[in-house]
């Protein structure tokens, strides 16, 4: 084997320590898969207060005490703690940058009670980006690659190409920036830029400035050595359209030759119905009939009546505009005329939550709703539902449709981004893995659901679809190899 590559993987959320969405799943599973292929990879994230010191056996690394991190005219200190995540074969070290003022909170990006973003998210992630580099200096560890993810890490490439360009330890480090979502950019006023201590000349249209603001995502796009996003289709969508590119498609165009789509995988040590500790009855393709026991457990949990012949439609989602649940709300009156049950686990926009609550009261025998974040229930919904709904307006990759397929639960999705890349539309005679619709429109969504329900009532045909999905291989191994070959390309440059 060729020489192992040293990689620092940086993310604002990593499962099981902190998770608001799929970024956390990826930030845990991908580094494990890379390590399993023989490379040295470590992770770094902020140490939010809710990450239990006891549960995760966090410990201080003595020589990393009191790291000074310049912010504006101030120099607060960071402290670094450490823990591990494990795959079946390997352990990956995780560093946590700790600072009570910035991360001593109950939420990751926003207060769980007010659901408003923290006002100092600019400073929190300026501190993080610069703190990551200062930590490396203190450690004396020189990674070959720093793999950055989303806007929260976007300033790292910018610092490396400016403030640290002559630093003996860091000047050779290459960066890769992975876009998980173009819609979240970390755009802040000019004053934030001043706090970052980046050189003045970087506040330009070919630098960190976008639409008059200091834009962290743009910093990542401009200054990284290469860019990836989490599906092939999304990589085209964000270059080709204003809407998907969220105003930065022009920038992406200038870097098109450095942009690649690499599909996310799923972590089968966590999402596997044969070993899943959270579900009622374990099963796999050979014992597919046992899945029904999970359906019974699921509907009972929501206080609905169990009937084998009533299809259960499940959904688990952040309730935000991206996910397209306004289409579901527009369709519910129509949908509830069918013999179906619908269970939703979601949290997010209070207005959407209110609307769903209203419908649940209107259709108490057919609808079950749980608001909040519930890992265990998410697994039971995957195992217990017949259909899984993802009507996203846009979807960089999406993980739940892949989890669904592994659990023999048939996805109904809008044909966008990773949803389009991973789901094959039902083509009759046992072909396909799900149901897709193109246009973002509630009537189109309804048509796809009705097509699915029709096939559900043809049990032999339905079972073929279940099997097709369960046999799909979405393991991380394949995608990890693609990242590794990208790292190698970068190191050859
Ligand atoms: P996104 O990152 O845009 O939210 P993904 O499909 O990539 O979408 O990943 C979502 C992840 O978050 C999945 O692991 C899903 O199960 C989980 N998830 C989303 N909402 C909830 C919730 N309310 N409770 C538990 N898990 C959730
Ligand atoms: C983002 C995207 C989602 C993707 C996830 C992990 O949150 O919205 O589509 O699966 O990141 O890459």
Query: Could you give me the name of the CATH homologous superfamily of the largest domain?
Result: Glycogen Phosphorylase B
Low-confidence stretches: none
Radius of gyration: 23 Å
Largest beta-sheet details: 10 strands, mixed
Task: Describe the overall structure.
The protein is an alpha/beta fold and 493 residues long. The protein has two domains: 277 residues, Glycogen Phosphorylase B (Rossmann fold, 3-Layer(aba) Sandwich); 187 residues, Rossmann fold, CATH 3.40.50. Helix content is 37%, strand content 19%. The protein contains 18 helices and 19 strands. The strands form three sheets. Strands 1, 2, 3, 4, 5, 6, 7, 8, 12 and 13 form a ten-stranded mixed sheet that branches. α11 links the parallel β14 and β15. The longest helix is centred in the first third of the chain and has 19 residues. The mean pLDDT is 96. Adenosine-5'-diphosphate binds next to α1, β14, β15 and α13.
